[in-house]
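Worked problem 6 (solution included).
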Amino acid sequence: MRRALRRWEAKPISSMQRRSAWMLWQLPRASQSHRSAVVPPTLRSTCSAGGKIGPARSSWISCTSGMNVPAGCRMNAFPPDLPRSLDSLAAIRDNDWRAFLRLTHMEDHWDRRGWLPGRHSYHWMLSFPDAENVRLLSEHCQARLPSAGFDMVPLDALHLTIGCIGFTDELPEEAALVIAEEATLPCRSLAPFSLTIGPLSGSAGALRFSVAPWSPLLKLHRRIALATNAVIGARCVMDTTRFRPHLSIAYANSSVPVPPLIPTLERLRDSPPAEVAVPTADLVELWREDRVSRFETLKKLQLGGE
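Solution. The predicted structure is:
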C-alpha cells in the first residue's frame, strides 16, 4: 500500500517523554519487533509531530560501534581507498575503475544477511525522477550489458543511496520521521549542488556509475548521520568514513567473473556523462520485489530551502 508524503508540525516534547523514548529504543534486540506496538499513543503522536528523542552527540560521524547493529544495513566501503581528490571527476573515475579491475568475481548482491523475504527498511537516498539524461544514459548502458548474471535496475528506481537507518520491524516509523525532522535544519544549511553521473564502473555486487564531486555528498551524509545518531544513538549504522557515492544500474544475482566484462565496460565508459541537480534528500521506505529494490518517499528534505 502506497502512502502519501508525511507532513507534520514540530512540537516540543518533555524531558520525561524523551527519556522514555530513549529507554524504549535501548531495549534488547529481542524486544525490538514489539516497539511500535508498545510506544504510548501520546508519545507516538509526539514523535510523528517532529519531537526529538535521545541525547544529541553532534561530534559523532561513525556510529557503528554500538551493540545490536543490523548487519543488513552496514555499508561496505568500495573502493576501499578514497580517491586522491574528492572533487575531481578524473580522480574519482580512475579510483573506482582501478578497484573494480582488481576483482576476479562479482558477488550476489541479493545475498545479504538480515534481508529476509518481505522485510522493509528506512533509507536516505537521492532519486532522479525528472532527470531524463540520467535515464537515457542508464538505458543506453543497460541495453549493452550482458543479461546473464545481472538484474537491471528499472529506470524509475534509479537512486543514489546515502545510508540506511534500520529495518522497519526494528524501528518504528515515528523514529524515522523524527530523524528527518532532526536533519531538516542541518540539510537546509547546505546549498543545492550538481553531480556528474558516469562513467560506468563496478563493485563487488553491482555495475554502477561513478559520481562526482564527492565533497557535497560527504557533507550531506555527515549531517544526516549526526541527525540519525542524535535520535537512535549507538544503533545508528551510518558511517561517513565508509561512504562511497555511486549510482547502480545492474545488480549481480550470482557469482560473475569480472575479466569477460571489461571489454564491454571499457566501450561504455566512453559514453558522455550526465549532469544532474540535487535539490533534496529523501527519506524512503525500501523493500525488495522480485530482485528489484523499490522505495516509497516518506519525507523530502530541501537543501538550501526557505
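Discussion: The first helix runs from residue 15 to 25.
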